[in-house]
Amino acid sequence: MKRIGVLTGGGDAAGMNAAVRAATRIALNAGAEVLGIQRGWLGLSEGDVRPLDSAAVGGILHQGGTILRTFRYPELIEAVGQKKVEEQLAKLALDGLIVIGGDGSFRGAALLDEMFDLPVIGVPATIDNDIPGTDYSIGFDTALNVAVNCVDKIRDTASSHGRIFVIEVMGRKCGLLAMETGLCCGAEEVIVPEIPFDLDEICRRIEEGYGRGKQHAVILVAEGAAKAPYIEYELKNRLKRSIRMVVLGHVVRGGSPSAYDRMMGTKLGLAATEFLLAGERGKMVGMVSGEIKLSQFEKSTQSLQDVVVKLEDLVRQLT
Length: 319
Ligand code: F6P
Known about the structure:
Helix content: 40-55%
Strand order of the largest sheet: 3-2-1-4-5-10-11
Radius of gyration: 21 Å
Number of domains: 2
Bound molecules: 6-O-phosphono-beta-D-fructofuranose
Shape: elongated
Strand content: 15-25%
Number of helices: 10
CATH class of the largest domain: Alpha Beta
Structural class: alpha/beta
CATH topology of the largest domain: Rossmann fold
Distance between the termini: 55 Å
């Protein structure tokens, strides 16, 4: 392959830079030219690219976000967006493309591979960790650590005031980030989209906890299950206690990548490029039971849902 493109798409995730660095250097080592496509699919549709040499990807391992920048570009599924991309692809003459991002980016990757006959390999990166076909997506560990850090701080106030805190965590339609944060922080309740919740029952358990001598109640809410202001409002209607809510929002997405995300970004970025150079295409790399594997872009999220349900059982046993 003479010319390879590297692109980051969807929400930025800590560790994307490690993947960009590994992909670039492995491709350069193989004698290919590397083009960094800026601002995801939007940048591709506008021909916004820059050559990446080894130095261009130096000193970025510790940086959060993505040096290539990113953009939500739903126009890629529309004819007008596809036409623009097709025109730019003809000019750029890429022999292959590494797409680092979440499932939206992978839909685009599959489309490009099929529609424009461009070999594409995906690298999973999203704080939601909701991509079928991999046990891990780059960015999740950093986001989890930030969320745990925030909840630990809030818990100090919750205990001091004997309060109930409702804390909303990102994750799109997946409850894994909220669930693992809850487990790591000893949350009393974790509300996730995968499991129906009953507010009367939650209130009963909270009161029971106070009855057993608990000093506070921390309730994690995954954004895909409910909004924190709603839960706060409903609890205030049911309980005569001091209640506050916090939305962690984008705070958990930023910051310097954890060691684990730097390592996973490096390993997955490297593997993706090696597979692409070896002639693989239309697939994604992923971590499956501790091994890096190449798999189809999958759609079923059933196994992800099962993981969350199992973890909820753990939360229940430990509160
Ligand atoms: O997919 C990552 C994510 O942070 C989700 O958890 C969240 O729902 C979404 O992106 C927010 O997107 P945006 O940054 O475009 O508002």
